[in-house]
Amino acid sequence: MNLSSLTELSFYKLSTNISLVFNINSDWIAPFKLRYINIRSCKLGPKFPTWLRNQSELNTVVLNNAKISDTIPDWFLQLDLKLQELDVAYNNLSGKVPNSMSFLDSSTVDLSSNRFEGRLPLWSSNVTKLYLMDTLFSGPIPHNLGEAMPFLMDLDLSWNSLNGSIPMSVGNLKGLITLVISHNHLSGEIPHQFWSNMPFLSILDMSYNNLSGSIPKSIGSLSSIKFLILSNNNLSGDLPPSLQNCTSMESLDLGDNKLSGNLPAWIGESMPSLSILSLRSNFFGGNIPSQICSLSTLHILDLSHNNLSGFIPPCLGNLSCMKVKPSETRQ
């Protein structure tokens, strides 16, 4: 009650187990003006904490895993905050997310693992990290996403109910490092045009959608790509030879598609850091190239449920750190 000069409040716990409970009356008026609040894995709920009602100077609000089962109240929006970070992930917040919130340069927004609904929100261009994983957002990805938020570096829209195609405006996100849009209902082809504009993209995960067509040759221009995950779609055609330009690849998962052709030898020759190679449940034929044996960092090799023939290269047995799931004939 006497901490009238308090500006920063942090109760941070790495474990998700909650042991500390804030037992504060709903009519309590805080005597301080916080700029920074970081509360993780402590119980604040079930209501959104009303003692924040007069905290009009906040620029960092982290209420992560705080057992809040409520909507974001109107009074919080009326504080007219300029936020550097907003993290209310891993609660049970519901309702629609307003587009009226304002953010400072290089800001972070994390609304993951809640029960928000409606269309994806679009905020100011200052947001660089946006995590909207595992909510109830539906509808298409906004067609003007790239124009509205052009400085995004990390974008995670996974585990929602998004539909429609991947908008071409994503090509404006030239600073992207992470793009995760897996576990949705997206359809259409993977855009062919804009991947050469993303020199920093390291993680691309489009798995568990309804994407069709071929793998774009332009994905081979992603010189920084380490994780390419396109599994569980309806992709078809051969592996584009341009992928051999992705020499930093650590995980390549193209399983559960309709890809065909022979397994290229360049996988073993051009991706020396590869630790996961999963091409399961496709229509690949021919033999297993012996060049795969040169992948000394390979841990997981899954070629099951294809149309492979010939012999398993004996040298695979020399890769002591690998778990091998050998090829099987599609029934």
Automatic annotation (TrEMBL):
Its main location: membrane. GO terms for cellular component: plasma membrane. Keywords: Cell membrane, Glycoprotein, Leucine-rich repeat, Membrane, Receptor, Repeat, Signal, Transmembrane, Transmembrane helix. The keyword Glycoprotein applies. It is found in: Cell membrane; Membrane. It comes from the Eukaryota. It is a single-pass type I membrane protein. Coiled coil: none annotated. This is Uncharacterized protein. It comes from Acer saccharum (Sugar maple).
